[in-house]
Every structure is written in C-alpha cells, then in structure tokens.
Write a structure and sequence with these properties.
About 30% of the residues lie in helices and about 30% in strands. It has about 130 residues and is of the alpha+beta class. The longest helix is centred in the last third of the chain and has 17 residues.
C-alpha cells in the first residue's frame, strides 16, 4: 500500500532532519512552507550541487536558472528551474538575490520530491513569509 501524502512528508522531514523551526503551515493559504534554513539542511543532507546562471538582470527584472544535481539510487539526477524577481512579485529591490534564492529553493524542493507533495519555500512569494 502506498503512503499517504502526510506519511511521505513525515518521512522526508525525518530523513532531512527538519524540525518545527524549518517547516510551518501558512495560515492563509494552508500550504506547507519550508524556511531558508530548512532548504539549507536539505542541500547539506542530500549533498545537492547547485549551478546558477543569470538569464536576465536588468534594473527592474532579474531571472535566474538553477540546476540542482544529486545522486539518487545510484543515478545522477539533475533538475533545472527558473525564478524571477521584479516589482510585481518582490517587495525587496534586491531582485537578483531574490531570483537566486527562489531558483535555489525551487530546484531543491523539486529534486527531493517535496514539490510533488505541495510544499513550497518561504522565499517563493512575499506572502509565504512566516508572520
């Protein structure tokens, strides 16, 4: 029998040694959110290698590609993802830095299967920040 979504999430939390400081449920949206420190724990535990490429960097818009690579079941797996930051989706004016953080988080959550379970990173949207 397959594990439920909650059971699978608990397995991932345990495997990546995440605790209540690393994960929270967003009160308005109901999504599970992983903090930046949680993302860093996952990267370290899974020995994920990250490669960044700046796709666009202008005064009011930046886009970054991040490719996450890790070994899974004896195979090397890579997942590329993109993220952007601009005045419409970012309260900070540090657009390049925000695009980098967002691309990293998305790549890490995708390659470790958290995304398939509906988990997001707090840096993906200003609205995902813990109050």
């Amino acid at each position: 029998m397959e594990n439920t979504k909650n059971e699978r999430l608990k397995e991932l939390y345990k495997y990546y040694e995440l605790n209540t400081e690393d994960v929270f449920k967003h009160k308005s949206f109901g999504f599970i959110i992983i903090t930046r420190t949680g993302i860093d724990k996952i990267v370290a535990k899974a020995n994920i290698k990250l490669n960044y490429e700046v796709v666009v960097c202008e005064r009011d818009f930046c886009a970054v590609k991040c490719t996450a690579t890790m070994e899974r079941n004896g195979n090397v797996v890579s997942i590329p993802t993109f993220a952007s930051a601009q005045p419409k989706n970012c309260q900070s004016t540090y657009y390049l830095e925000m695009a980098e953080k967002r691309s990293k988080s998305r790549a890490v959550l995708q390659i470790t299967n958290f995304y398939s379970l509906g988990v997001y990173s707090e840096v993906e949207s200003d609205e995902f920040k813990q109050k």
